[in-house]
Write the structure tokens for this entry.
Amino acid sequence: METQNVSDMIEQYLKNILQEHQHIEIRRAEIAQQFDVVPSQINYVIKTRFTIQNGYLVESKRGGGGYIRIAKVRLLEDNQVLDLLITAIGTTVSQHDAIAVVQSLFEDKLISPREASLILATIDKDTLRINDTQTENAMRARILIGILNRLRFKS
Amino acid sequence: METQNVSDMIEQYLKNILQEHQHIEIRRAEIAQQFDVVPSQINYVIKTRFTIQNGYLVESKRGGGGYIRIAKVRLLEDNQVLDLLITAIGTTVSQHDAIAVVQSLFEDKLISPREASLILATIDKDTLRINDTQTENAMRARILIGILNRLRFKS
DNA sequence: GATAATAAAGTCAGGATTAGTCAAAGTGAT
DNA sequence: ATCACTTTGACTAATCCTGACTTTATTATC
């Protein structure tokens, strides 16, 4: 048992529920009150512990009837290829290298031809249309990594 | 889903009817009375939930015998609808609206769940991570329109 | 026909109710 | 003493709901 700060406790509480339910819907203020913390700490817990890499999808709505919904998705067991690619990409990637990544995904049968085509459209130089090459490559890296993280999902 | 404010209920009511009918024609005052809200809330519901991004076309008439007509359309069914959508997106689109478009494409079976997931990753605010909202929305618009054009020609 | 009365729907701004962001302060392990 | 992580709260943003006012179309009256 590690030291239990409040964030850990909130994390556990939510994950316990998620073991029996595919998704939960909470009202931020209620959970905050339940654990006697300020509402924004719930955001902190979600940001740090319910990430997409860990297989959690979060959506929310403000205003009357607002909520935060957390869903657990199943992840592929063997995602070593994806991890390697994500590491290789880092924070910046040229269009040339990005195309190579998509190509290898295709060859490994991780994506269909149609999906490859879609991905190529989004990371294309003409789509991004950013003047500064540095900024363009950083943006491309974020998009590509976002996609790779989605590929961890089991269908 | 489970969360229920009145706007959600009105939305659901209308969409239920639209599942069985191509279009519906309502009298604003009647629906308002039915749900015990002021008439202008019907406009609010329509403006926020029955947009072209959601795959709906709305027309109306004032004065005696006035009405509001809502029709469900398929985004890529004909170029007219697609043009409307592209015009609505223009050069800038919020994450909220972009999600609605992807959702519509999915409902029309133009993209698979997996493709939807990948597209959502690319237009996600946390993926793009651009400080300036205007710039972010412009980038999102380019990506989304790139995808729409690809779907138009290749599906 | 022209005008007035009536019958719709549309717009907009404001108050209420939620969640999100961000930076600063606090805490604890090394 | 430092560094990463946690906690806080002031400020921001989105969404819902309302009502006063506006616009448009039809119907009645002269």
Observations:
- Residues 27-29, 39-40, 42-43, 60-68 of chain B lie near DNA strand C (CB under 10 Å from a C1').
- The two ends of chain B are 31 Å apart (CA to CA).
- The domain at 6-72 of chain B is CATH 3.30.56.130 (Phenylalanyl-tRNA Synthetase; Chain B, domain 1).
